[in-house]
Design a protein that fits this description.
There is one protein chain. It is built from twelve helices and no strands. By secondary structure, it is mainly α. The chain starts with a helix and ends in a 9-residue tail after the last helix.
């Protein structure tokens, strides 16, 4: 394991944590699906000039896998993620999404033959416990009825949306890794291909978008926030993700990418979110779990 893909995975996690906070703070009446479509279109346009400078070398099989990865992981997975983000807040949604290592590792064992060490299995267990702790927490202020924190029940539909995003994202990551291993293009090219595939299947949603100038004007400009979130979470984040997936085993890459909830913990107060002891313990479990999966703690393995 080299340092470059590990650094890429951790940088992607930071980008996603900050971008998730920005998306949740964006004032908009767009549905989660339409917001996802605009994000994908904007990111593809921003990355396309860079892709045209690099010659394409990829097998048809890898292109098909990367296309399916974009449809499952970005078109469907990110739509569910945006919907969950509005209900649960950044930290809770990202912590549930950190369950990806368990899903991806089990699939990686069955499909790619990647068997983790015992220490990595322990790390996956700790990450899963972190997810369970967060599921039992009430939503943050502003995500539902304004009740005292202790009186707000856990948001069942929000948790279901986040779990759906987790499954789709993990499946998309596994397909992307399989595509990269079967003669796929460079990580930057793979990122644009996945974004383009996701945007293409979602294009019919453009028909329902309101025309510019119609409706009430927002109290402040929204495009700088949307642009910053897209650059961080989609453009930079997805390229860094592809770099990590290309250089690390699937379960290990997704585990490192799942450090986002730990990085989101200091940002919680900006959303009116008070982690409490469950949030702190969940973050500690996630960090310990990721450390074990990444081999940063030297437990013996076979």
């Amino acid at each position: 394991m080299t340092a470059a893909p590990v650094a890429a995975a951790l940088a992607a996690a930071f980008c996603w944590a900050l971008a998730s906070l920005l998306w949740r703070r964006l004032p908009t009446s767009l549905s989660a699906a339409r917001l996802n479509l605009l994000k994908n279109l904007l990111a593809a346009v921003l990355l396309l000039p860079l892709v045209l400078l690099v010659p394409w070398r990829a097998s048809p099989h890898s292109l098909l896998l990367l296309t399916l990865s974009g449809v499952l992981g970005i078109a469907l997975g990110d739509t569910l993620f945006f919907a969950a983000l509005r209900r649960l807040g950044t930290r809770r949604t990202l912590t549930i999404d950190a369950g990806g290592p368990a899903v991806t590792t089990l699939a990686g064992v069955a499909v790619l033959g990647e068997v983790p060490r015992p220490a990595q299995w322990l790390g996956i267990l700790l990450i899963s416990l972190a997810v369970l702790l967060v599921v039992r927490q009430p939503p943050p202020a502003g995500a539902g009825p304004e009740l005292p924190a202790r009186s707000r029940p856990p948001d069942g539909p929000g948790v279901a949306l986040a779990l759906g995003a987790l499954v789709c994202g993990s499946g998309g990551a596994l397909l992307a890794r399989a595509g990269l291993l079967s003669g796929g293009p460079e990580p930057l090219q793979a990122a644009v291909l996945r974004l383009a595939a996701a945007a293409l299947v979602m294009l019919p949603l453009l028909a329902g978008l309101p025309r510019p100038g119609l409706g009430p004007r927002p109290s402040r400009r929204r495009w700088p926030l949307a642009l910053a979130a897209t650059l961080l979470g989609t453009s930079a984040g997805i390229v860094l993700q592809q770099t990590a997936l290309a250089g690390l085993p699937g379960g290990l890459a997704v585990a490192l990418l799942s450090t986002a909830p730990v990085m989101a913990l200091p940002l919680a107060a900006l959303e009116g979110d008070h982690p409490g002891w469950r949030g702190v313990v969940a973050a500690a479990f996630a960090l310990a779990g990721v450390s074990l999966v990444a081999g940063l703690v030297g437990l013996p393995g076979p």
